[in-house]
Amino acid sequence: MKKSTGMMLGTVSAAAVVLAACGGVAADSKEQVIIYSNADDEAIEVMETTLDDKGYKGKYLIQSFGTSELGGKMMAEGTDIEADVVTMASYFIESAQTSKSMFVDISSDLKPLDGSVTYALPILGNIGSIFINTEVLQQKGLSIPKSIKDLTDPAYKDLVSFPNIMDSSTGWLLVQAIIKEYGEEEGEKVLAELIKNAGPHIESSGSGPIKKVKTGEVATGFGLRIQAIDAKNEGLPIDYIDPTEGNFTLTESVAVVDKEGEEALAKEIAKVIATEARDGLLEQYPVALYEGEQVKDEHVPTYLKKWDTTLTVDLLEKHQAFFKEAQR
């Protein structure tokens, strides 16, 4: 998997299928299911291939959005949104359902590991971790970090990179780990020192840190665990470190918009994405989400943890405010 958008908030990703310039659907495409998605190009390719193989070619159109833009449309438009199906960050789906009651029941026989709701099915997951450039660490005489707090050591000054939670939800994985381990008071101090050490290397994209670690511009970074695994398997001097504060996870799910009883085909397509496309998505994003799923040992994090409550947009905004306080 090569994560192209880094789970960005606020930037429109390249459209998987380009609709009309205004984002509308042509009059002759009413029989097609419209899918709005914040997924990366790799995930969309898996979905399209699976849907086509299962006989749905020509029966759907996919349009890609940045997470923040699609989330804004969902929260503003509710069931008036043009989409029949959305694949989206699970916390946005949760918040949109609570606020707008916009999704219908698509429950299935699948048994998610992390609980379940009747209006959405998880389709992929991402896990955060530290990663390092082993050659740069050696050149700089730096020890291998074991925790996020280790990266606040002045020895790492200007040699740390991580995503900004204001722009990338990958950054939320970092903030969750800090608050969970240290609480808000001490956690703010830890984050403030980390921000100071990162200096100009706080990235707007979740894929920014791994790029800088791969080029050797910095020695260490925080981002998606799979990015470091992929780089290491390519033979680069990259390794991944599961921070003792915990490896937190964000998922993306599929949901069907309430169209007043006209959701039959949309439900079929959503369930194909959640079930038939799951093997391909699991290969690209190796995080077990359902009972019975297996991943390679290297994809099982040492300190898998989760937030105490359901992730929501309100919680994200609270943690973004926490980040802003630490920046002062």
TrEMBL record:
Assigned keywords, A-Z: Signal
UniProt xrefs under PANTHER family: ABC TRANSPORTER SUBSTRATE-BINDING PROTEIN, THIAMINE-BINDING PERIPLASMIC PROTEIN-RELATED
Signal peptide residue numbers: 1-26
One Pfam family linked to the record: SBP_bac_6
Name of the protein in its database record: Extracellular solute-binding protein
